[in-house]
Design goal:
This is HD/PDEase domain-containing protein. With 221 residues, this protein is mainly alpha-helical. It has eleven helices and no strands. The protein has a single domain, classed as Orthogonal Bundle (Hypothetical protein af1432). α2 crosses α8, α3 crosses α5 and α8 runs parallel beside α11.
Length: 221
């Protein structure tokens, strides 16, 4: 099997990587360039181990993994248009209009909140762009497990000033649900193990928080 890296335009990937690293330099630690590196690595792994790899464009997988948080509404800069930012960037770096459109579509389809609002649309997008299943799973896997735990507290501390108890509620509201939303078998396998790690953490939290009498969270069965 040919390496995914051997099937892409290295110059384009290098340019985009440098852009993303600079663009995200001011993001907080929950969505920094290290997050992008992990998602990229996960996306390559899932692409290589999921069936029907030949049906997916490896260049779309890599570029979408690199760019999926560029234009994120939580960090969008004044004057930026999230609906076209990725497309315009890629065209400016010499990508074909078709490639730029595909990557823009995949990046916009990764969003959890968008899927919750219209899950059928995401399923239709995956039929048209199977790369979305890979990148979406990779992004969500990095949101759970031990790294996901760290990212929750990093984000809420940096952006929302929420209490630790409010941060813990995020696990119940979203993160524990992600395993069931994986689109690939590989993603589901990775998510199952990481979800178990979060459940164990929450059991520990429940035991320790019980001493406060105020921040106790129900212990998972």
């Amino acid at each position: 099997m040919a390496s995914i890296d051997a099937l892409v335009n290295e110059g384009l990937i290098t340019s985009v990587t440098e852009y993303v690293e600079a663009y995200m330099a001011n993001y907080d630690g929950s969505h920094d360039f290290n997050h992008i590196r992990r998602v990229l690595g996960l996306a390559k792994y899932i692409h290589a181990h999921a069936p029907n790899a030949s049906e997916r464009d490896p260049q779309v997988v890599i570029l979408s993994a690199l760019l999926h948080d560029v234009g994120d509404k939580k960090y969008l800069k004044p004057g930026e248009d999230a609906s076209s930012l990725v497309n315009d960037l890629l065209v400016s770096y010499g990508a074909t209009e078709e490639l730029a459109r595909k990557v823009q579509t995949v990046c916009l389809g990764v969003s959890y909140s968008s899927e919750i609002k219209d899950p059928a649309r995401v399923q239709e997008l995956i039929k048209l762009h199977p790369e979305l299943a890979v990148v979406q799973d990779a992004d969500r896997i990095d949101a759970i497990g031990s790294i996901g735990i760290g990212r929750v507290f990093t984000f809420t501390g940096a952006r929302t000033k929420a209490s630790m108890a409010e941060s813990i509620q995020h696990f119940h509201d979203k993160l524990l649900k992600l395993q069931s939303m994986m689109k690939t078998n590989v993603g589901r396998q990775l998510a199952e193990e990481r979800t178990q790690r979060m459940k164990e953490f929450l059991r520990w939290w429940g035991e320790e928080a019980a001493f406060s009498g105020t921040d106790a969270i129900p212990v998972l069965a």
